[in-house]
Amino acid sequence: MIEVRELTKRYGATTAVDRLSFTVRPGTVTGFLGPNGAGKTTSMRILLGLDAATSGEALVNGGGYAALRRPMREVGALLDAGAVHGGRRAFDHLGWLARSNGIGARRVAEVLEQVGLAGVARKRVGGFSLGMRQRLGIAAALLGDPGVLMFDEPVNGLDPDGVRWIRELMRSLAADGRTVLVSSHLMTEMELTADRLIIIGRGRLIADTSVRELADRFRRGVLVRTPRPAALTAVLAAAGGSVESMPGGALTVTGMDVAVIGDRAAARGIPLYEVTPHSASLEEAYMELTAGSTEFGAVAS
Ligand SMILES: Nc1ncnc2c1ncn2[C@@H]1O[C@H](COP(=O)(O)OP(=O)(O)OP(=O)(O)O)[C@@H](O)[C@H]1O
């Protein structure tokens, strides 16, 4: 479990994280979303003891990172896949990490297998592609078999196969009952991967929601086509719906779901040619929520 409470981080005049509170529970993939500069990396760095909070708390399994007795066995993280010495071989890099945490060499072979790098275990990391480096970073995160995992923008720069692999890995780690926090600035990626979403902007919490709740919140009504629009409008309005005529003769109905619209029309013998619920895409919802929170937004003229 990850708990962030009233977390604030200032760098001089910049407030990177601003009284941020949220909880990440086991068994789910939680997407940590926000535009560039929103404070995602800073929050993760504080959770991992790489930076100190100005105030507030960032707890992993109920304690601060510094208080964890065997950190790699409790929390694994991928922050910057580039941060590996290029002259090292993959096996040696992980072997060194494992030894410093009392983890056996057998586990190194296991995680290399799990991330698909067993065949290049003896190769130097300097010759690795970005995707291979990401996999190596993930292997390091998995080394201690931790219950809490954090990944900062893990799909950045990956090809579609790599993206799909990471997505499936996150989901299987959560299905094992682990706590998985994964940051991204792309809603399109998160809607395929995450169950819950923590959306931040300018260091502040904007939404702490499930993907489904967010979709429901941005539902835009039901598009209905009928050869008798005036009659249907009267029936639905009398039943408490709000009906708007669209160009081309369609109606948009809000405040009423598809089944109720169908039942009311059927009761009056009004034919329906189309009944389609319309939601804003999650991407549109995200843009709407974070409008005004982007660090370098275009200025409207
Ligand atoms: N070491 C630092 N010194 C000064 N300012 C910093 C430092 N680290 C981060 N910041 C600032 O804090 C804010 C939050 O940055 P952070 O990297 O946490 O955002 P992010 O959400 O991870 O963004 P991105 O998607 O661009 O990585 C930004 O305005 C950034 O410039």
From TrEMBL:
**GO terms for MF:** ATP binding; ATP hydrolysis activity
Q: Which UniProt keywords apply?
A: ATP-binding, Nucleotide-binding, Transport
Please give the superkingdom of this protein's source.
Bacteria
Identify the residues that the record assigns to the ABC transporter domain, covering every copy.
2-227
One family from Pfam that matches here is ABC_tran
**InterPro entries the record matches:** AAA+_ATPase, ABC_transporter-like_ATP-bd, ABC_transporter-like_CS, P-loop_NTPase
Its family remark reads: Belongs to the ABC transporter superfamily.
Name used for this protein in its record: ATP-binding cassette domain-containing protein
**In which organism is this protein found?**
Actinomadura soli
